[in-house]
Amino acid sequence: MIQILVSACLAGENCKWDGGNNKNDELLDFMKRMEGKAEFHLVCPEQMGGLPTPRPASEIRASDEAVINTEQRDVTAEFLLGADLALREAKKYQCTIAILKERSPSCGSHGVYDGSFSHILTDGMGKTAALLAGYGIRVVGESGLSELEKELESLSAEAKANVPSPKAI
Q1: Distance (Å, rounded) from C-alpha 16 to C-alpha 55?
Q2: 4 by DSSP, 3-state: which?
């Protein structure tokens, strides 16, 4: 069975910085279709790192990679702790894939906001996404779900094709 780590906010948990969520119906449908083939493990690295919900919005400052919130407080330590605890969860369940919230300073995998709080995206990864990827866990944002599902279906079909047929007795 495939083990997949998932940003809890995408599954509808109210752990987003503003107290809401980023519920993604495509993800929830994917999770239903994968029943019996995959297990999903929800995490919110920011809460795991000790930050409250709601909390001031945070971004990764491009100049030094520090995570700064809208109150100009450096919350890098909380983000790194949350990343470490999310990695521990991934290892505990032997997750090989993580579906994480795009553009998040924790979970973004193909660009994050630059720390100016002006909605400017820059290349880079969130603290959790980078740590997971560094340990060989495939990190996918919510916009990559359909591609991921096609790949998993293809792998499943290949595995079924390679199963030897029962021999006649």
Answers
A1: 8
A2: strand
Distances in Å between the Cα of 82 and the Cα atoms of 22, 105, 127, 139 are: 19, 11, 9, 16
Cis peptide before 54 (omega within 30 of 0): yes
- Can you state the percent helix, strand and coil of the chain, rounding each to 5? 35, 20, 45
Q: In this structure, are strands 112-113 and 67-69 parallel, antiparallel, or unpaired?
A: unpaired
In 3D space, the residue among 110, 96, 105, 95 whose CA is nearest the CA of residue 141 turns out to be 110
Please state whether the predicted TM-score (pTM) of the whole model is above 0.70: yes
DSSP SS3 for 132: helix
Spatial distance between the Cα atoms of 123 and 126, rounded to a whole number of angstroms: 10
List, for residues 45-100, the tens digit of each pLDDT value.
999 999 999 999 999 999 999 999 999 999 999 999 999 999 999 999 999 999 99
Taking alpha carbons only, the member of 117, 114, 130, 111 closest to residue 62 is 114
Q: Would you tell me how many other CB atoms lie within 10 Å of the CB of residue 143?
A: 12
| Residue closest to 89 by CA, chosen among 1, 2, 4 | 4
